[in-house]
Structure prediction request, 172 residues.
Amino acid sequence: MLELGPGNGEVALALATKNPDDFHVLIDMNIHAADEIGRQIAKRNLKNVGVVTGVAHAELSRLDDRVEFDVVHCYFPSPLNNIAMPAPRLYDQITCREILRLTQTGSEFFTVSDKAFVIDRFEKRLAPAFRLGTWRPPISPLMEGAVIGTQNERIHCIARDVTPSVARLVRT
Ligand SMILES: C[S@@+](CC[C@H](N)C(=O)[O-])C[C@H]1O[C@@H](n2cnc3c(N)ncnc32)[C@H](O)[C@@H]1O
Prediction:
């Protein structure tokens, strides 16, 4: 499993705890976010999570073609360029190209955003390899019960108020 821009890692840490046999790779360019996730990994003694500090497309480009992610998560990707830390956005072509390279038939992509255009960009850029599986408010079955605390509330809250809000893309 891959998560791009995990922030405080709440979603991935919950999923990693719930699914100990799956390996989770997290990439965030914010060193403070990555440090905090590292502390949480140690505190929870998780052996199935690896966190990388860096810009997503650059870090992904280091992985060779044999690496395949079954599931990619990307929640609330920053819609605008960050002036303090400029980098391609997670829904930009350069990142989506790496997602395409590192996934295969049956791979899934989950995203949540309060900005419909963000989801539209992902959809457009991951096509034609991925088809739109479902718009599935409030949250996907994968997330159901796995996500806790504020993140869960945010997802529910935003999914209720914004359409489309949660996208599940399946690679065909
Ligand atoms: C708005 S926050 C969302 C955090 C978390 N997913 C959530 O839902 O609370 C966006 C995160 O993506 C990271 N980010 C943005 N662009 C990135 C890029 N190109 N590569 C890696 N991380 C990126 C930011 O550092 C930040 O932690």
About this structure: Residues 78 and 89 are 7 Å apart (CA to CA). The chain has a mean pLDDT of 81. The chain has one domain: 2-171.
